[in-house]
């Protein structure tokens, strides 16, 4: 409060520390007090950065506030000269990110504070969509409250809120895959990408259906009637014809392979495996629909 100007600096390779130091110690033409935000994701300023930070700490400008935001700092950084200088001149606040185990109860508490009651499956969907980004989580909850008010929501309503913002429906894609309509499935997938629907949301819908199909195919192989298995697994009556058609297209082994392929797509989307998320999703969806892009010969 009281700072009339905010300056943001993102430290990356080639960052000009000399220019930053000069700018941060120069009186602004537009405000008496400045908030200087220095983003240091690596937590390693390098030799030039250490020198600039030490100089800044020796020549503190009482009219300015320096906010340094870093990634996780190792013990070497904590013992470094620049960190000790910052700690001596100011305040160090450590904020640990939410773990995957902590995120669901955190989301649940935030939702309840806004009068939203989310089903476990709805919370699970939100976790997939916002992992590692609490700001996005808060924004999604705000959007759900604006759309539904204080109410009880299931995963389909949560997914629909995201889909509505993108003006398309991932469930239409899933139905096309079950139907085996490869051309329409490919068109929908491209449109979803154009509308900005996150690949992880598309994959969530597809993977959920794959798990269902694996369970149904396994039940059939063990001798259980499909009608009975559908009832046990909660398949809606209106979707039974689509599910039945899909099960006739592939054997259990193929459904299991497709579920493993979905796991690979997940790793591509999250950056843990090389590849294009769009291409990986296209290969998976076409294979489900019965027309793989690549056939082993």
User: What is the average per-residue confidence, as pLDDT, rounded to a whole number?
Assistant: 85
**Total E-strand runs:** 5
Level of helix content?
55-70%
User: Which structural class do the helices and strands define?
Assistant: mainly alpha
Q: What is the C-alpha radius of gyration, as a whole number of Å?
A: 26 Å
For the sheet with most strands, the description reads:
3 strands, parallel
SSE series: EHEHEHHHEHHEHHHHHHHH
- What number of domains? 3
Please name the CATH architecture of the largest domain: Up-down Bundle
Sum up the overall morphology in one term: elongated
Low-confidence region ranges = 163-168
Number of helices: 15
Give the strand order, joined by hyphens, for the main sheet: 1-2-3
CATH topology of the largest domain: Zinc Finger, Delta Prime, domain 3
Instruction: Give the end-to-end Cα distance, rounded to a whole number of Å.
Output: 68 Å
Q: Given this structure, which CATH class of the largest domain is correct?
A: Mainly Alpha
Residue fraction in strands: 5-15%
